[in-house]
Amino acid sequence: MKSMAEYLATPEQAAAMALSLLQGQGGVRIAAVWRQLGEAWQLLAAIGATDALPSAETLAGGGRLEAGCEAMPLRAGEQLLGWLVWRGDAGPALNEAAALLCAHLLCARLGAEQAASRAANDALLDISQLAEECGTIDQVLPCLHRQMMRLMDASNFYIALYDDEAQVIHFPFYVDQRDPAPPASDAVFPLAGQAPSLTAWLIRGGKPVVLSRERLLEVCQQEGLSRQGLLPASWMGAPLLNAGGHVIGAVVLQLYENQTQLTSAEQQLFLFAARHVGFVLERVLHRSQLERQVWLRTSELEGANARLRAEVAERQRAERFQGALFSIAELSNTSLSLEAFLGGLHRLLAEMVPARNCLVALYDQLEDRISFPYCADEYAPPLQPHRPGKGFIEQVLHSGRPLLIDPYSQQNRQSEASADLPRPKSWLGVPLYCGTDLLGVLAVQSYDEDVSYNFRDQEVLEFVANHIGAALTRVKALESLQAAYAELEQRVRERTSELDAVNAQLEFDSLHDPLTKLPNRSYFSKTLRRAWDAYIHGSGERFAVLFIDLDRFKLVNDTLGHLAGDHLLFEAGARIRTCLRHYDFLARLGGDEFAVLMFGMDGGGDCERIAQRIVNEFDRPVILAGREVFSTASVGVVLADLEHYHKADDLLRDADHAMYCTKQQGRQGYTLFNHELRINQADQLALESELRRALEEEGQLQPYFQPFIDGHSGELVGFEALARWQHPLRGLISPGLFLPIAEESGLITRLDRYILNAACAQMGLWRAQGRVGPEVALHINLSSAHFHDPELAGWIGERIRHYGLPPAMLHLEITESALIDQPEIAATVMHALHELGVRLALDDFGTGYSALSYLHRFRFDVLKIDQSFVFDLDRQQESVAIVRAILALAKALDLDVVAEGVETAAQLAMLKEMGCGKLQGFYFAAPAPAQGMDWERLARFRREFQHGA
Fold this sequence. Notes:
With 949 residues, this protein is α+β, with helices and mostly antiparallel strands. The chain contains 29 helices and 31 strands. Helix 4 (94-133) runs parallel beside helix 8 (264-311) and helix 19 (675-696) packs across helix 20 (735-745). The chain is elongated and about 160 Å long. It starts with a helix and ends with a helix.
């Protein structure tokens, strides 16, 4: 089928039209249009002497253009279709001509690919049908070769077949234009030997291979393979597999230097076609095997018939017997019922022996009864089943051998006969066998004195008995098969029922949380999208999304264990459910996060009432491990709004943001997402993006230094490096604004490393200038995120060595959150830092849990008293007591102490009186950049302390 572009013009015509357009509207003197066809290039049209233009191969290889020559690649997306090359001024029609060429070349390529795909499909279909169309393997193989030639260049092609029993291979089809001595089709070669062939190696490996000439030589040398004939440029082979996955042969394609090498797509097509070839050959070989077995069986029967004809003196009798025997054989292969089959045998038997009276008796060993599925007698009525007695049938069953009773035998005279029925003059019975099992008796009898059975009749009857035994076997096998089918169908029904139950459970598990049995995130997302689609199309009501997070859940989980945490989550889900209406949709998103879809929400009032009800529900304690535990809830609420939302996921995002706003406001409450939060959210996203750029540049982020003063001598003993951001447009941005953004976005580790590197560089510079001595320390804050990084100590050690600083000079300030989040990893990282020589300070001591176990478990060198206690020293005695206790604890543990937030002379005096070792605060100096450090003011404090002493 042609495209519209091909109906309008061929690619050659389109190329000529484009060049005419360029020549007519511009100054093009020489031009050519090339089209890519696989690995080759075709010149579609040209004007002028194209020898002055570079070839398409040169352009595709990235060759440089000569002066005055220009070229434009013709593409469709990233796909190269061809080249337009010219000399002269192309004029304004260049883009129009290029677009025309691209459209025609793309249509031509797509049409060629579609035609190739259709041809491949037709060829593969024809290959699959060869097993039905061709009778023998010799007829199939040339047809297979012709079909392979339709798919690719298969002029050098052969098929090898593998005999698993004989462990040999032969080549029934071998076509090679260059091989002077191809193997004969009837020649066989051992699969294994001292120097097996490459084909034998392929069959033993059982996997397809593609070998270049160099790789082929290498494989032959490595595997000790013999190589006969000419060496091809490329050798590709694939094993032929039957339906059971067993190798039955191989198909090989050889390419020489004068042939185009196959592309990767043609190689894949060859491997795919090899599978079809394997299936076709398996069916043909199987059919040939069956035909050979039939032929052998027919030969045996013909031999028996020949021997029978030789024994029978009368030709006419032999022919009649032979025809009857064939009829019996054909009858035994039919699917008639047992009664119809036996009736047909009786009619055929009557043509060979006097058998007007015939019966078939079957013996059931389990019930010890003889039954008569077929009985034809001139005088006697149909026989009824009975137990074995002393008759002729019982004698045959007992002996398992034929029994012939003639009119003059003693047995005939002694046999019992009914007074109403005549005595048979002659009786012949043969046993019916199924393998070695005795099934019953086939018997004929005659009331005519002129008829006397002989051993020839016995042979005929034994032959018929064999067919009856085979028919009985077939009937039993059919009954067993039907019983097996019935049992299999019952098992299939039971298995299907079980699978339905399992699938239903799997579907439920895939959409529900295993702990709370509530819908999971995936189920919630699908329900949210359906509700949103219904809402925007007007078929659904307005709804709201609640995002619920349990406060302090991690503390409960880490303190009381995961079992208690699971119980808390289950109880939380149950409590939230009691606050909702029956048609609201509750789900657990993961961790300690829940979400609710509330339908029929026209305004924020109903949402806020339900949100407050959920918050109030958590005022009651939860009993966990015998303890009363309080876990509050932070809730974020958002209403569906067509003005501000375009997709359902944005609602969940804003509900999550509103929940975090609740946490920032003190937790245990709810926040209704509004326009102001939306603006703040956008501003935070912009600020995060600008922070990322600031980390890539120099100058925006810089450390500000706040000095430490010795509480006894007034000497300068250290600096704390604080991160500050001098934005080019916003000015100086508060750390309280950008540090939380850095924490949430994961940029905090990069920011800390940035400040640490800059502070160490500045400290090295001050040491080189003689500003500070070796006793002056550098304090730098580290986020808890660093304690998930086992490579932190290595990186800090490299920076210290780079700037020539003593490790003990660097003090890393750590908050309690770093120890709570990952205590084991934190202990490992802190040990590595201690081994490095870096000192560690516990920041904001007294404001968190202040667990003494931290001081016992983790090795700290410095405690920093939080400024909240220093601020109230001259106002509250409690603060004085706390500071004295911290100083006493530090002295007992041999820890240095730094008091933060010293702002007044009264605070200074009280801390000096308490014996605090190091002081920090605005009383001495505010944080300042390195160039703004007031060294004279710092020196004045030393003189003041000495004068005061």
